[in-house]
Amino acid sequence: MTEMIKKNANDLDRNFRYEISKKVGAKSLLNCIQCGVCSSGCTVTEYVDMQPHRVVASCLLGLKDEVLASQAIWTCSLCHRCTERCPKNVDYSFILALLRNMSVKEGKIPKEYSGSVVTIYNNGYVVPYTGGLKDNIDRRRNRMGLPQLIPPNLDEIRLIIEETGLGELAKKKKGEE
Amino acid sequence: MAKAGGAAVLAATHAIPLSGEETKVELIPLKVVNPGDDPRIGVFICRCGINIAGYMDVPTLVDYAKTLPNVVFTMENKYSCSQLTQDIIKEKIEELNLNRVVVAACTPRTHEHLFQKTIREAGLNEYLFNFVSIRELDSWVHMHDNPKATDKAKDLIRMGVARVRAQRAELKIKGEVIPEALVVGGGIAGMSAATEIANKGFKVHLVEKDDKLGGQLNLIYKINFDRIDSREFLEAKLKEFNTQKNITTYMNSEVADVKGSIGNFNVKVKNNSDGNDLNLNVGTIIVATGAYEYKPEGWYDYGENDKVMTQLELSEKLRNDALKDGETLVFIHCVGSRQPKDGNGVTYCSLICCSESIRHALYVKEKYPNSNIYVLYRDIRVGTDEESYYWKARENVNYIRFKEYPTVDSVNGKLNVNVKDILTQTHLNIEADHIVLSTPLIPYDTKKLGEMIKCARDQNGYFLEAHVKLRPVDFATDGIYLAGTCHSPKGIADSISQGRGAAAHALIPLISGEVENEPLVSVVDPALCISCQKCEEVCNFGAIGVNFDNDVLVSESNPLLCKGCGDCSAACPAGAITMSHFADNQIYPMIREAVQGEFVDERPRIVAFLCNWCSYAGADTCGVSRFQYPTNIRPIRVMCTGRIPKRFVLQAFLEGADGVFIGGCHIGDCHYIEGNYDMLQRYNELHELLESVGINSDRYHLEWVSASEGKRFSEVVTEFVNKVKELGPLPKTGDKIEKKEKAKEGA
User: Fold this and answer.
1) Which residues of A touch B399 (CB under 8 A)?
2) Which of B391, B396, B430 is closest, CB to CB, to A9?
3) 0.90 cut: is pTM over it?
4) What stretches of chain A show up as alpha helix (H) in DSSP?
């Protein structure tokens, strides 16, 4: 059993459900009847702090902070099984993508995820190709007879990140650091 | 089924019934058969293809049947149920002047009627016929033992012949029907029923205890199915209702007494405002006494705080626009319903409160779009038509599911609701302006009425129908029907259709103008009756009892009310009551023949009394499924286990049976309501008696086997046969030796 959240009804974000549902493709959120089929078929149900049906219930009730800060929306493997099984055609996978976006915008994304974006922004690679790491990588590639790495076009990558909105996140994170 | 009945009555409103001439069937006059006449019995043995002939020696049976006393004709048929055989039977009745017929074939439960019809067409009374089951009770359950199965069939045929000898001609009982109906209760169900009966041209009396018609409709805000104002709906209904000249309405009145039976009920109606009594004579009665909303005293300050209300009180507020926009409403479900046995409220689910709450939530949202609604629920149970409303409500209303009931505190005039939401795992504190409680429906107190009309109610006070699926608007008592919420909680649409369904059934006797009953009824011999009232005690239909209006106090049986269980006949200490067609003098020869055959090569020999509706049907199911059991039992069919007096059991042991088996319906499932309880009582009493005469009471066994428990029937019979086998044959001196040993062990 997870720990109970204490909450006053006046602190609930009553518009949260509409904030999500008004977005194109997410109206199905309101159809949920809490049957729990999504959670019973979920492939990562043991690893999430909030099971799918609880995420949806929390969205409907207006527990915005809790949902956006949860691990659950990031742990999802997006296998779409919940969407397939839902009797009311709630597109949970899609709603989850929206929630991830919202979480990013609010700066609530866990460090593990945002960190890799910052790394890519800075280096163009998920694994930094600089300093001591660069020597290490080069040595190994040589040993295996792989061609030398061509440094990425950082400007291009940064442009993409900024244009898609991920830049906000990168900037925020940088600022925090 | 209730809805189909409702549709049928609407369809039948405009149909013209067939005239008496059109429906009449010409039959040749009955042959006179006096009880003193020499029986001339014809025995027809069916091969049923290979179903019977494949497992026993049918020609031997034919030869054997010829040797039985009074049998003048015997033959075997490939299929007795074929038209060819029917023609042969008719021919032989005429040719040989047969006055009794025995058919040994499948089972009376499916084919008795066919042969009865055949012999009636040949001018022989239907009740001079006996059916011997040698397929379901013999060939199909002893498939691997041809000689023993043949022996058993010989015994069964001999038993059948012995019984038919004592059978007498019986006439179906006819009674006239007064072409008027009474409807108790002027709610929507009662009004619908009355309207339909009146539409068909019969006079209807409607008794309403309040000063206005419509019942709960007066309190409801909007109709569930088309969302129009319920007052408008009621007005339209009343308009239609009031144009009916055939309906007489009695306001502020109650039914004070009901006497009589189907076709002729004598009803006393008491007017509560002026205290006057009124006597009515009606042919049928429809009970639609209804139910009311539970007032949850002791729940959440209900009654003390005017911000706490029930759903119907919210209805009133919605109608009067008494709410403000932007308020917070908390709906709490299951208040007073689905409670533990000793809890505050009722144990059952009231079925309609979820839908009611859902609709109210939607109405509030429609009228006051800025209001916040929290619905706290345990489970949501909505029917097919309401599901779409539920989905709609889910979109804009907060549904919070609880396991522990929420708590409510009143702080500075504000209501604080604390609830643990098990869906989001949140401990929520809601500041509410109004709390609305969903409470169950409670039936009006109908204990007195139930006793007057002899109809059963369940532990919650709802009336019980004759059969949940097959007879949903009938009572077990003929001529009385039920509709609306006095039967179970239901919505307006269901109440209307059930009211119409009840009307459809009540119209059947009214239109035909006459009721016909099987002559399986009890007959009292006034010369023997000691007016001890025992028969009245055991009768579940109020059909028999001492008539205190008579000069001579003797019991009287009403053949129109009697269902033919025979419980009274078994209970009568004076032997004054005879069960027609299942009389003692018909059963005793069967018991004797069951035990005293020339073929008693096989012990133990067990006499089994099986109730027609459950255990005999269970034995049939067992046969159809080919579950095998030992050949030792000789079944005797009775209508109910209540028919079996102690003397039958004792007689069986006296004749030399090694064991007696009794099979009846499960407790609570009795076709005659409580006949098996009476049997159970006799069974328990008899144990001691048997021990005192030196018979081990293990030789005597009672088992409840339902019609579907074929497998179980074979199991309990096998088990019992094995037990009696262990005990060995019953010695002439009884089981005294065993008893002594037992006593020694005890010492």
Assistant:
1) 34, 60
2) B430
3) no
4) 16-21, 37-41, 52-61, 64-68, 72-75, 81-85, 92-105, 111-123, 131-143, 154-163, 166-176
